[in-house]
Amino acid sequence: xxxxxxxxxxxxxxxxxxxxxxxxxxxxxxxxxxxxxxxxxxxxxxxxxxxxxxxxxxxxxxxxxxxxxxxxxxxxxxxxxxxxxxxxxxxxxxxxxxxxxxxxxxxxxxxxxxxxxxxxxxxxxxxxxxxxxxxxxxxxxxxxxxxxxxx
Length: 151
Hints:
Low-confidence stretches: none
Largest sheet: 8 strands, antiparallel
Shape: elongated
Strand content: 35-45%
CATH superfamily of the largest domain: Immunoglobulins
Helix content: 25-40%
Mean pLDDT: 88
Distance between the termini: 65 Å
Radius of gyration: 26 Å
């Protein structure tokens, strides 16, 4: 004996189908809202007006000829090696902010001390994970700004 396919069966299939669709949409929307770290710029129109100024600053940085290398040491302190054409760049002032890429952890202000090797080492370590380090270097009238990813 075979059962008949009735309207109740079709109703159950339709309810199950839409329950899955709504459930997946709700889950994806919740995950997207919880993991979104914010905006890149608050006002894209204003950022666009400053774009040429930022390009000029980037070209000026390139003309300095400074070479940088950021890495984490075994204690998870940020190490910055700075060099110009003459060798290690001594006497520079460094400050940085480490930001979690998804905004899940608070920003960490980094202060640096000169290392005998000619590098600069942060006074505090970074917690485990991936970090965007926004570095600002000043030496005399020259400045360098960069963003590096460390993990």
